[in-house]
Each structure stands twice: as structure tokens, then as C-alpha cells.
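Intended use. Records like the one below are meant for learning the mapping from a protein sequence to its folded structure. Do not use them to infer anything beyond what is encoded.
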Amino acid sequence: MKIRVIELPLDFGASRRGSDMGPSAIRLAGLKEALTDGGHESEECFPGIPVPAQEFLTEGDSSAKYLAPIAAACGELAQRVEQALDEGRFPLILGGDHSIAIGSLSGLGAAYRKRGQRWGVLWVDAHGDFNTPETSPSGNIHGMVLAAACGYGRKELTALHGDFVKLETTNVALAGVRDLDRKEKDLMRRAGLRVFTMTEVDRLGIAQTAREITAFFKARVDRLHVSVDMDALDPMIAPGVGIPLTGGFSYREVLLLSEELAASGLLGSVEVVEVNPVLDVRNQTARMAVEIISRLLGGTIY
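Structure written out for the chain above:
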């Protein structure tokens, strides 16, 4: 597979700094070697997407902090993601906090719209990221991007890279969820999202959960984008994230899910975000990110 690695070292969308170093940490954890060992051709997208120093910016509207610089950087990311698909490459997108996903999803939405293909998103995350400025308690944009891709929220985000709804809510599933804001939960229910909470994962078991997720998408879409926020994992195995929450996916659970998704034949792009080296322990979370990427791209033990 020809993989194009696209990095956006942006951490304006979260309260904690440090995830801007996530792409570098993932590379240092052996990403290129893992891709080569998997039989893939990889190319990095240079020059990098420029991100101004946050210390020299003002947050602006407190209900959507740093909206302008996030929209500018994500607009560039959207162009690069769309171009990668147009050129027959598999986009592997590294962040940064999850606010970068509005760029990824906008670029994918534009590319698949031109092709007339149905596409969907599996959002692997402890959080729903389905807030709007009106529902968000924090005003942090990393908690708004999935909603924005589905047409909810500020025009600067919903109309990024084209004024159309990028993603149909009927083609979205979330896995690993264990922390939702009250108004966000109400909006998700109205939107009709399929949500696999950690409680449901525990009840079904990871093998059945993985089967239900793949069946959900096979019935609906031609191509699938998987967006992995590393806080979906339990902090015992992924401590270097912005918002660590106990009770997340175990090591084996997340790798089994990744292998089942790879075997579905649907994957067209992957995104990994929220590795924060400032909070990590000996680059443990970044190494876990590389392992997840490897399995999503078809790697197996035997």
C-alpha cells in the first residue's frame, strides 16, 4: 500500500499543551520501520503545515477558543488529505489534538463526494466530540469536530473546505466512549449516532463488539475512516494523553479491534491523535500508537 503520512502538530483545541509534539513522538517510536516491515511504501508530506506559536495568539471567543488559527491550519490539512486520495495514496494523519480532525474529515468528505462514494467514520475515543459552542462547557474545539463534520456548529468549521455536510450521521459509530457532557449526549441522540460505550464493550465482549462495528459499516459504506484518540485506551497502557480516564480499552482489546477493522477491507484512511509526550512515560503511548497503526494496516502476529 502507498501511504502518505500527513502531520498537523496543532494543540490549540485542547486545554493541555504538548500534543503538538505527538507526531514527532510517533515517528521516534518507529513508525517508518513499522510501515516498511508491513510491506508498505510510505512518503511524508513536506513541507509541514505551518502552525503559529500559541503564546503569540489570543484565544478569541471563549465558546470556541482559537477558532481562527485552527480553521486556517485545518483548511490546509483538508487540501492535503483530498490530494492524497486523488493521487491514489492512503492518508495516515498524525496529530496534534483532535481538533485537527475537522481538516481530515473535510478533505475526505470532498474527495468522496467527487467520487460519489459512501463513506463513514469510526471514532475511537473516550469522548463524543459532538459538542457545539452552545453546548460545550469548556469551549475547546477538540470536543466539537465530529459534530462540525456532521453539520452542527460554527460556520467556520461546518463550511471548512466547502459549504456542505461532510459526513452523514447515519454513517458514524463511536467506540470506547465513557465521558459525555449532558447537552452533548442529547445532541448525539437526536443525531442518531451509533455509540459503543465501554459499558457496552464490557457487556458484549471485544470480539462481538468488533463484529458489530464491522457489520454496521459494511451495511452502509464503501470506505471507512478510523480516527483514534489515544485517550480511548486505559491510562495504564497509554498515560501520555490530554485527558486520561480510567476504564478504557486494554492492550489486547484495541489491537483485536484494529485487526478486525483491517480485515473488513473497508479502510481508506487512518488518523491518530492526542499523544502528549509531556505526560507520557518513556514514549509508551507513542509506541502504542505505532502498534495500533500497524494492526490497522494489516499487521498480525502470525
